[in-house]
Design a protein that fits this description.
Blueprint lengths: L9 E2 L2 E2 L11 E5 L7 E7 L2 E12 L12 E8 L14 H14 L11 E11 L4 H15 L10 E7 L2 E4 L3 H6 L2 E8 L4 E5 L2 E2 L3 H30 L3
Parallel strand pairs: 6-7
Antiparallel strand pairs: 1-2, 3-4, 4-5, 5-7, 8-9, 8-10, 10-11, 10-12
Helix pairs in contact: 1-2, 2-4
The chain binds cytidine-5'-diphosphate.
Length: about 240
């Protein structure tokens, strides 16, 4: 047993933080909190605190990256040094590059990039506090920031993970479950099309467990989707 590893993850049907197996952590989303960004969002998701800022469509620098047929979408995921318990060395690393890449791939299918040739749309995701699931929190925040910037999109992109702890499939792992659990399956999707734009997996699942976890994560996405829409409605009104 590793240091800090709990003896049991599930006691009487409840998880270590008191949640049911299919229960999300508390999520708060606020749209448009940064004055100088074209669009922004702040998301608190359990112990995660994540800010997203969107700029553009704007001129592309360096110029050679510009595309004559569409806008380029650039995503930068960054973790503050104070966001985790062991200080994180500032600056990009393998993990942040990977998360930036999958975030862009998760969001790009909904953005009408063809409407803005020769421009860039930049999205910055800053993790101020981390407690597992920061890529999902970041994607959820980024798509609200894109909408807040008025970027034409087919839909919002909600994101949520499911995983396996103590032999059970559970929704939305928090840090102890993520560190010592058996699997983590982050998912992002386009609800209107029922299409998946992010699917990653850490650990091992049988096919049956995988299917159950995927279904649970997609249900989690739909709950996040409602909160994203609510946040935009609070700022802009409308039905
Ligand atoms: O955050 P996410 O689950 O999307 O990505 P991960 O690579 O699976 O990281 C899981 C968690 O490990 C993060 O949310 C942080 O809480 C923690 N972590 C950390 O403590 N120090 C790091 N340098 C990176 C991650």
């Amino acid at each position: 047993m590793k240091v800090g590893e709990p003896e049991k993850f599930i006691v009487k049907g409840k998880r270590l933080d008191g949640r049911k197996l299919d229960e999300l952590r508390e999520i708060k989303i606020e749209a448009g909190i940064l004055k100088r960004a074209d669009g922004s969002a702040y998301v608190e998701w359990g112990g995660n605190k994540v800010m997203a800022a969107c700029y553009g469509p704007r001129e592309v620098h360096p110029r050679h990256l510009a595309r004559s047929d569409k806008a380029i979408l650039r995503c930068t995921y960054n973790m503050a040094p104070f966001s985790v318990s062991d200080r994180k060395r500032p600056g990009p690393d393998r993990r942040s590059r990977e998360i930036s890449k999958v975030t862009r791939e998760a969001l790009e299918p909904v953005v009408f990039t063809n409407l803005f040739p020769r421009t860039a749309i930049d999205v910055f995701i800053e993790v101020l506090q981390a407690n597992a699931g920061t890529r999902c929190t970041g994607i959820a925040a980024a798509s609200v920031a894109l909408a807040d910037a008025g970027i034409p999109m087919r839909d919002l992109v909600p994101s949520c993970a499911a995983g396996k702890v103590g032999g059970e499939i559970v929704l939305d792992l928090f840090d102890v479950e993520d560190n010592f659990g058996e699997a983590d399956l982050p998912v992002a999707m386009i609800p209107r099309k029922n299409e998946i734009t992010l699917l990653q997996m850490d650990g091992n699942l049988t096919q049956e467990e995988f299917e159950k976890a995927l279904k649970l994560a997609m249900e989690g996405c739909i709950k996040v989707y409602e909160l994203q829409k609510e946040a935009l409605r609070r700022k802009y009104g409308g039905a």
